[in-house]
Design brief:
Elements lengths: L3 E7 L20 H7 L18 H8 L11 H17 L4 E6 L3 E7 L5 H18 L24 E5 L2 H17 L18
Antiparallel strand pairs: 1-3, 1-4, 2-3
Helix pairs in contact: 3-4
C-alpha cells in the first residue's frame, strides 16, 4: 500500500515537451519549438529519465525556441514558493516530510493525502504561484496574457514515485535533503516539514 510519495515538480522550461529523453506531454504548443525538435515525446516511464543518455547540445539549442525564457527561481522566489507550499499543507493537513526547492525544480516527500498525487502537485503549484504573485515576485509579472493573467511559472505534469515502505520513505527523505548539498548549496530547513514518525 502506498504510504507516501516522492514528488518532483519543475519550473517552465526545465523539461521540454519534446525532450529527447521523453516527456509527460502529448503535443508541443509552440510552433517554433515543434520545428526545432519535432513532436512531443510522451512516455509512460515512472523512473527518472534525467540521467538517460541523449544529445544534450541539441536539447539546449531547442530551448532557444521556447515562447518565454525558462524560469530559474532566485533565493527570494524560492522562499515565496516555500510559503505557498506551507499555506497549502497547513490548510489541508498534508504531511510534508522533506522539501528542497531548487532554481528549476522542487522535490517533496509527502504523506498519502485525500487527493491524488497529481491533484496535490497542481494545488501546490497553484499555492506557490499565488504567493509569488502576492509578493510581487512572479517570474512573468511583466509579460501577462491579453486577459491580464500571467503564464504559469511551472512545467506541465509532475514526476511521482509511489513509496510503500518506511525504508522507501526514509531513502526518499535522505535524497531530497541531500539534493541542494549535491548541487553545492546549503541544506534547506522549512517550517512546514514534519519529522517522519518512527512508528507508522
Amino acid at each position: 500500500m502506498v504510504i507516501a510519495y516522492h514528488l518532483v515538480i519543475t519550473t517552465y522550461g526545465f523539461w521540454l515537451p519534446n525532450d529527447p529523453r521523453g516527456s509527460w506531454s502529448e503535443f508541443v504548443r509552440a510552433w517554433e519549438l515543434f520545428r526545432a525538435g519535432g513532436p512531443a515525446t510522451k512516455t509512460a516511464e515512472r523512473r527518472s529519465l534525467a540521467s538517460d543518455a541523449h544529445d544534450r547540445l541539441r536539447r539546449l539549442q531547442m530551448k532557444a525556441h521556447m515562447v518565454r525564457d525558462e524560469v530559474r527561481l532566485s533565493g527570494v522566489q524560492a522562499r515565496a514558493v516555500a510559503r505557498g507550499f506551507c499555506d497549502y499543507s497547513d490548510r489541508n493537513a498534508m504531511s510534508v516530510y522533506a522539501c528542497s526547492i531548487m532554481p528549476d525544480h522542487a522535490h517533496l516527500v509527502v504523506g498519502r493525502h485525500t487527493c491524488s498525487i497529481e491533484q496535490v502537485a497542481n494545488l501546490l503549484k497553484g499555492a506557490a504561484t499565488a504567493e509569488l504573485s502576492r509578493e510581487g515576485l512572479h517570474p512573468f509579472a511583466d509579460a501577462p496574457y491579453r486577459n491580464g493573467k500571467h503564464p504559469t511559472p511551472w512545467g506541465r505534469g509532475q514526476w511521482a514515485v509511489f513509496l510503500d515502505s518506511m525504508d522507501d520513505v526514509r531513502r526518499a527523505i535522505r535524497y531530497v535533503e541531500n539534493n541542494p548539498i549535491k548541487d553545492g548549496r546549503s541544506a534547506q530547513h522549512w517550517s512546514f516539514v514534519k519529522p517522519y514518525p518512527i512508528h507508522v
